[in-house]
Structures are given as C-alpha cells and as structure tokens.
Specification:
This protein has 326 residues and is of the alpha/beta class. The protein folds into 2 domains: 34-125 and 253-321, D-Maltodextrin-Binding Protein, domain 2, CATH 3.40.190; 127-244, 3-Layer(aba) Sandwich (D-Maltodextrin-Binding Protein, domain 2). The protein has helices at residues 2-28, 45-61, 76-83, 102-105, 141-150, 166-178, 190-198, 209-217, 265-280, 282-290, 300-321; strands spanning 34-38, 65-69, 91-96, 117-127, 129-133, 156-160, 183-187, 204-207, 221-226, 252-260, 294-295. It has a 6-stranded mixed sheet, sandwiched between helices. Strands 7-6-8-5-9 form a 5-stranded mixed sheet. Strand 1, helix 2 and strand 2 (65-69) form a beta-alpha-beta unit. Helix 1 (2-28) packs parallel to helix 9. The longest helix is centred in the first third of the chain and has 27 residues, at 2-28. The termini are far apart.
Length: 326
C-alpha cells in the first residue's frame, strides 16, 4: 500500500511545487520589460493600436512594454516567433481577426493558431473601409462593381498584410458576393499599402479607419463603404456595403492580445485586468474612438470564444471560396 501511494504523492508534490513557483512568479511579474510583437509594418492600424496599448500597459505594469514589428506572410512570421517563445508573460502578440483564418489559409504552419496560445484580452473592434484615391472615378460601391465587371481582372486593390488579414478576407468576401474579379496586391501592412494607394500604384484599398482616416480627412482618399452591419461612428456619412446592395454583408475586424501556451494563469489574469482597466479609461476610449476602434473588454475566456467562433467562420469561408495564400 505504501509503495502504491509513493508515485501519487510524488506527482502531487511536483504539481504543488510547480503551482507554488507559478504563483510566486506571477506575484513578482513583471520584473523586466515586456515585448508586444506585431505582425505588420509600422504606421498601420495594428501598429497604431499596439503603441497606444504599450504605453498605457507599461504605466500600469511598472515596466516598459516594447513594440516589436515583424511584418510578413500575413502576420504568420510574428505569430510563429511568439508561439516558440518562453511562456513567461514577457513576450506577447497583438493579433487581428485575420488570425482566425490563418490555419485554413496556411495549412503547414509551425504552430496551431488556437492551441499554441493563451487568450489574454480583446482590445476592440473596427470596420474595414473601402477607399479610393480622390483622383479615381469611384464614389459609390456600384462604381467599383461596374468597373470590375466591365474589366475583369484589371482592377487591383491593396490589402495590408495580405494572407488571412481582416482586410484581405473582407475583399475576398466582397468579390464573392458581388461576383467580380479584382486582383489583390499584398503589402506588409497598412502603411505600405496606403503609400501604394496614394501614389496610384493600386486602384482601391481595403483598410481599417485608424490607418485611412488621416488621408480621408485630408481629402486624399475617398471612403466608399464600410463592411460592418452598422455605420462607423468616425465615418457616419459612409454607407455600409449592405446598404449599397449586398444584403447581409458584414465583416468586423477585431484586435486582441495573445500569450504563448503555458503562460501561467496568474500572469494572464494580471495582464487581462490591466488591459481591461486601460480600455475602460475615458482617455483611452476617446483615443480609440478617434481612430475608429470601439474598445472591447472581457475575460480571457470571452476572447477565446470569439477566436474559436471566427476560426470556424473564416475557415469555412476560405475553404469554400478556395482562397490561397499569395
């Protein structure tokens, strides 16, 4: 009997020791700077949001939060790097809703988009806005659709990040619903994509208001439509895609923070608490609304359920439409 219980006692002792170490680590966390990895180039919507969150989160944690841009391959380069990092809370990943479609689009990833990560917190939600240079002949969605139908495969558009990003998927869904053939030109983020659009390198852009808004206000870009169910608070005069003839069309982008799988739950809880606090701050809310992002709070579990739901939705759509990574 005594020998029977020895392995069990040893296992319990090891588990108890590991738990104690995890709790102790969480109580002292953080003791050094935290890195927030972003899979897109500087200047885009994800980067803008990351830098806002990094500044506020660093203040509450008492340690700097450093933004590290690793653009390329639809953010999968950055995501793979974080998945392979030590799960101690010192390397985090800012993701967009395109993360939910990456598994279907890139079947040979070195990580699992869900199992390789712990959800930390949702940051907010935003529409995708379809924009064109002010010099272009497009003012309504009908103008774009008519031009695409008259010249199949001739109209091109920029989608920052390419791959399974929210902007590129919104474009793919629109092409499918409108039965038009347009060509995507992928860029490593909203910044390079907008530069190409403003220079006339591409005809259209699918972007997040936080990136496109300054150029819209300056009169350099014309907003044609937003992809959400309702109009955007920062672009109230811009009709939705559904309002312009494609009934039921809806694509809502979201942003959030993930940590590598195995990160201690007390660390996740601390990060979630601090992120929710900064999102509830009136100044942060106002700054987010100013770039077209509605702050979103909730538990790690809430964020995990959102990721799971959109993974199913985006995955089904990508496979049905036969979308391939460029």
């Amino acid at each position: 009997m005594r020998q029977t219980f020895r392995p069990l006692f040893k296992a319990l002792l090891i588990a108890g020791t590991a738990l104690a170490l995890s709790i102790a680590q969480a109580q002292s966390y953080p003791t050094r700077p935290v890195t927030l990895v972003v899979g897109f180039a500087p200047g885009g919507s994800a980067d803008i949001l990351a830098r806002l969150v990094a500044q506020k989160l660093g203040d509450s944690l008492g340690q700097p939060v450093v933004v590290d841009n690793k653009p390329g391959a639809g953010a999968t380069i950055a995501t793979a790097a974080v998945a392979a990092s030590k799960p101690d809370g010192y390397t985090l990943l800012l993701v967009t809703s395109g993360h939910a479609g990456s598994g279907a689009l890139y079947p040979k990833l070195s990580y699992d988009p869900q199992k390789s990560f712990e959800p930390v917190a949702k940051l907010g939600a935003s529409p995708v806005v379809i924009v064109a240079p002010a010099s272009a002949p497009f003012r309504k969605l009908k103008d774009v659709i008519d031009a695409a139908r008259k010249n199949p495969g001739k109209l091109n558009y920029a989608a920052g990040g390419g791959g399974a990003t929210t902007t590129s998927l919104a474009a793919e869904f629109l092409k499918n619903e409108a039965k038009v053939d347009m060509v995507m030109v992928p860029y490593k983020g909203s910044g390079p994509a907008l530069t190409a659009l403003l220079s006339g390198e591409v005809d259209l852009g699918f972007d997040i208001p936080s990136s496109a808004l300054p150029h819209i206000k300056a009169g350099k870009l014309v907003p044609i439509a937003v992809t959400t169910k309702s109009r955007s608070s920062v672009l109230p005069d811009v009709p939705t895609v559904a309002e312009q003839g494609i009934a039921g069309f809806e694509v809502t982008g979201w942003f959030g923070v993930l940590a590598p799988a195995g990160t201690p739950q007390p660390v996740i809880a601390r990060l979630n608490k601090d992120i929710n606090a900064l999102l509830n701050d009136p100044d942060t809310k106002a700054r987010l609304q100013g770039i077209g992002v509605e702050a979103g709070t909730g538990s790690p579990s809430d964020f995990g359920k959102l990721i799971a739901s959109d993974t199913q939705r985006y995955g089904d759509a990508i496979r049905k439409l036969g979308i391939k990574a460029d």
